[in-house]
Amino acid sequence: MSEIALSIKGLKVSYGSIEALKGINMDVRQGQIVAILGSNGAGKTTTLRKISGVLEASGGFMEFFGHDITKMQPNKIAKLGIIQSPEGRQVFRDLTVEENLMTGAYIVKSKKAIQENFERVYGYFPVLKERKNQVASTLSGGEQQMLAIGRALMGSPKLLLLDEPSLGLAPLIVKSIFEIVKEIRQDGTTVLIVEQNALQTLKIADYAYVLEVGKVTMEGSAVELRNNPQLIEAYLGGKK
Description:
Elements (H helix, E strand, L loop, with lengths): L3 E12 L2 E12 L3 E5 L6 H8 L7 E6 L2 E2 L5 H7 L1 E4 L11 H7 L7 H14 L1 H5 L10 H13 L5 E5 L7 H16 L3 E6 L2 H7 L2 E6 L2 E7 H5 L2 H7 L5
Parallel strand pairs: 3-8, 3-9, 6-7, 7-8
Antiparallel strand pairs: 1-2, 1-4, 4-5, 9-10
């Protein structure tokens, strides 16, 4: 079995008096796609934001390849190789595609590595190469999502965090993006994906956790969860 890349033990995060995460435990193994599923308000995005260092923990512990990252600053976490593609894409609308991608490479010191990252991103998303001189605001929603993922990949992540990559996109585009996520994993990058689209996500994931109001209520291999009647009823609309 592969090494654990990220280990989360008893993690708690509060917004004022509201406890958003109530002591969750998760492991993300190297070379896997691990999914966090759940409805709005379950704590999925909070989990990713804490892993990125944007939020403070009120309890618990996080370790990334032996480094204690529980109280680490976001820039140091990024330098260790945890890079997030945020919910809602959040591309720089007035910058070109290429300029957006360059902003993702700010922690990469080697020009050769940056060039290789450009080639990798354009390999996954040929449309971005075609549109490299276009400003991001002129791209479609699907292309902006590709740009957000590409920008994250420019930072040479060991662990790529994807927050709701299917949000607001047509089913065909979603299918295409999920296929590329599989390719990214096959090329050696570990992926932690947060999604409401449980069915599509479980088709590409190796392992999954289900969050409900800040607690892990279910976990298992993606195959097990895809065949779990309780999960099918709650998240998959009563059918596989």
